[in-house]
Write a structure and sequence with these properties.
11-stranded mixed beta barrel
């Protein structure tokens, strides 16, 4: 528990890099992220994820941004843990509408934990990504793909905004911080990739749907090492859970529903 909060503090402190390193260039950008995630449950221990992201950039909506489509397979060893293997096809677009769109094939393994406390829920997520990004010369796509690893650690809390009760839809305050670090022989200057801090409201609306909206600050170091971008992002997400199990003991159904709420 102490180590988790220590890592969370380290992640938050990276937001102050701009003050400590005096980068040569620091630019600002505003974006809007629209996201949809479908969580499927096939059995007490197996499930799946389908996810789609659509982003706009430049004063939040001026031009098209990165698009991500993901599919994943999840294994639940118990009600508090989740293991998953994932693939995403990504169309990377420059946040300032410069250069060509660059296709990316991204795979990753992930492990997530949820730990309930009397007044809140603590969520942790570890992710190891393998990224194959199409090369470009800045003006057009060139031959081949650039490969690197990326490691991510996210720590978040969910705090019910009123006393939960059977049959009552309870909104939650959500606070998350995630730090992303690059690795690989082609990474020279930007081992630190970015830090993402999110605060928002998550509200179940019934029939397996949850709506989440909030503010995301993304502070990113560019590949040259001396350029940084500070993103101010409005994020809107629709979560849907769908139970495909025909028959399940009551205790397992309760565990599944609890986990679905915690692993958004």
């Amino acid at each position: 528990m102490r180590n988790a909060f220590l890592l969370f503090t380290i992640g938050l402190s990276s937001l102050t890099l701009r003050a400590q390193t005096a980068p040569k260039t620091l630019r600002y950008q505003q974006q809007t992220w629209l996201m949809y995630q479908l969580q499927l449950r096939f059995s007490p221990h197996w499930g799946g994820i389908l996810e789609s992201h659509l982003r706009r950039s430049g004063h939040f909506v001026d031009f098209a941004g990165t698009q991500i489509n993901r599919v994943g397979l999840s294994y639940f060893p118990n009600a508090a843990a989740r293991l998953s293997a994932n693939y995403a096809y990504v169309v990377n677009r420059n946040a300032f509408n410069v250069g060509p769109a660059r296709p990316e094939h991204r795979t990753w393994a992930e492990i997530g934990f949820s730990q309930p406390f009397p007044r809140l829920v603590l969520n942790q997520r570890f992710r190891a990504e393998q990224r194959f990004v199409h090369r470009s010369d800045g003006n057009k796509l060139t031959e081949g793909y650039r490969f690197n690893h990326r490691l991510r650690y996210q720590l978040g809390i969910q705090w019910p905004m009123r006393q939960p009760a059977p049959g009552r839809l309870t909104p939650n305050l959500v606070v998350q911080n995630e730090i992303l670090v690059n690795a690989g022989k082609e990474i020279v200057y930007n081992y630190f990739d970015q830090n993402q801090f999110f605060i928002g409201i998550s509200c179940p609306v019934g029939r397996g749907f949850t709506l989440q909206t909030g503010y995301l600050n993304l502070f990113q170091q560019q590949s040259a090492g001396n350029a940084f971008v500070d993103f101010h992002i409005l994020r809107f997400t629709v979560f849907q859970t769908l139970d495909l199990q025909r028959r399940l003991p009551k205790t397992n159904k309760v565990a599944m529903a609890t986990l679905s709420d915690l692993t958004e």
